[in-house]
Amino acid sequence: MEFLNLRWADLDPNFHLRHSVYYDLAAQERIAILDRYGINAAVMIDQHFGPVLFKEECVFKREIRLSSRIYIDTKVLKMKRDASFWVIQHSFIAETDTLHALLKVEGSWMDTIKRKLARPVPPIVLEGMENFPKTADFEYI
Asked: What are the alphabetically sorted keywords of the record (predicted)?
């Protein structure tokens, strides 16, 4: 568990985390996890694919302030068996285990040359997504 490094620039006029920062932090966390499982920028460029989002939403539960000690717990909530579609959930949690926000994204993989959904997904994607952490109530769809 790694706590977030929040910056003054991340705050809004009410001195809590700006709404758009949640999305930026979640995206950075997703990319870091994908990288751990071999799905990195170099592989995506070489094999001509990348992630694409269809939906992104956040439910804000409690304020996050500059001094807050928060970490993001990121896991796959749902996924097609071929990893061609997935829902990833990001829980913004305080060191006291208090949930501050729940952000979910629905996405797939795009062929960056054809500019269409990648079907089938490259083998490294299937392997990486199988290894990606899963929620307790994870389900294949």
From this structure: Hydrolase
